[in-house]
Write a structure and sequence with these properties.
Blueprint (H helix, E strand, L loop, with lengths): L3 H12 L13 H8 L19 H9 L13 H12 L9 H4 L2 E3 L20 E3 L19 E3 L21 E3 L24 E3 L8 H8 L7 E3 L11 H8 L5 E2 L2 E2 L2 H6 L55
Parallel strand pairs: 1-2, 2-3, 3-4, 4-5, 5-6, 6-7
Antiparallel strand pairs: 7-8
Helix pairs in contact: 3-4
Length: 322
């Protein structure tokens, strides 16, 4: 399976951190020697630079000037830009395995990844890991750096949280699991304080969660939870969905990207103590605006009144699968 480590190595090759104008090379030997020797005189004027070498300012200009053949693309990420410039000013910091220590945010989107491998443990300073729009079905928590604060796994194939909750990073503040394959109630037992003591934001949108009271009983243990997204789940169709959540989770500030005002909280006060109002059914109203490909009814209206022409009847039906 394609792993995160393999995708990162491809990313490094794309960055070209060891190639001109970045990296360790003859083109920046003078200013490297000056930094290593405190008594050396700094290179000030460009004409003082030996032939074949460049000052850091000139090398940076080659990255920043949009007309330069080494210029960064306009849509490159801030991390991309930062690493390239660090590779000019202090390339020894990114040499070899040291590059893993410099990465605090890693975003690998839509690269066909299937495996979160143990190679991630090399990122000992990693705080943000975004792996959305891949093919990840299982995440082993032992492969995640302990320093993680943000973990985004939206648009994947995660259907079980057991492996993720075996040894989760306790400092995690945001967990994004929207657009996956989570089904309740077996997964709800993993969304408790014991696994996520510092969780502030949780995205479970567009999964297949159905048990609203059961999920709320687990989420109520998350003492630091302020942002919750549940829209797109079947449980969000229940009539008292929002009111029950607002009253059950008093520390919640934002639900489904909508701020919870004090007036709304007062309006639903006491609803959490009336579970009988939560019904396990919902009504869905579907309106069909237009149907294509049907025979033109005007073709059958040309028969004269009283004629013995055949009568043709067409019937149509629409099927819904839940």
């Amino acid at each position: 399976p394609r792993s995160v480590s393999a995708a990162f190595q491809e990313y490094l090759q794309h960055l070209a951190l060891q190639d001109f104008p970045c990296g360790l090379g003859s083109w920046n030997k003078s200013h490297l020697n000056a930094r290593r020797s405190p008594r050396a005189e700094p290179v000030g004027l460009q004409e003082a630079v030996p032939p074949g070498e460049e000052t850091p300012e000139v090398l940076l200009e080659l990255l920043r000037d949009q007309h330069s053949p080494w210029a960064l693309p306009p849509d490159c990420s801030p991390q991309h830009r930062l690493l390239r410039e660090v590779a000019v000013l202090a390339p020894e910091l990114l040499h070899g395995s040291r590059v893993f220590q410099a990465v605090k945010s890693l975003r690998i989107l839509d690269k066909g990844m299937e495996e979160v491998d143990e190679g991630l443990l090399q990122f000992q300073q990693l705080e943000e890991l975004i792996l959305s729009a891949n093919h990840i079905s299982k995440v082993t928590s032992a492969h995640l750096p302990r320093t993680l604060k943000v973990l985004e796994l939206c648009f994947n194939a995660v259907g079980d949280l057991q492996d993720l909750c075996a040894q989760p990073p306790l400092e995690l503040q945001h967990l994004g699991l929207g657009y996956n394959r989570l089904c309740g109630p077996s997964q709800e037992k993993h969304l408790i304080m014991d696994f996520w003591p510092n969780l502030v934001s949780l995205d479970l949108s567009f999964n297949s969660l159905t048990d609203l009271p059961g999920l709320v009983s687990q989420l109520s243990t998350l003492q630091n939870l302020h942002i919750l997204v549940l829209q797109g789940n079947p449980l969000a169709l229940t009539p008292t969905y929002r009111g029950f959540l607002v009253d059950s989770l008093p520390k919640l500030s934002i639900l489904d990207d909508i701020y919870i005002w004090p007036e709304e909280r007062q309006q639903f006060h006491g609803l959490a103590r009336q579970p009988e109002l939560i019904r396990s059914e919902a009504r869905v109203v579907v309106s069909i605006g237009e149907m294509m490909g049907l025979p033109n009814r005007e073709d059958f209206q040309q028969l004269e009144v009283g004629s013995e022409g055949p009568v043709i009847t067409y019937s149509y039906y629409v099927t819904y699968e839940f």
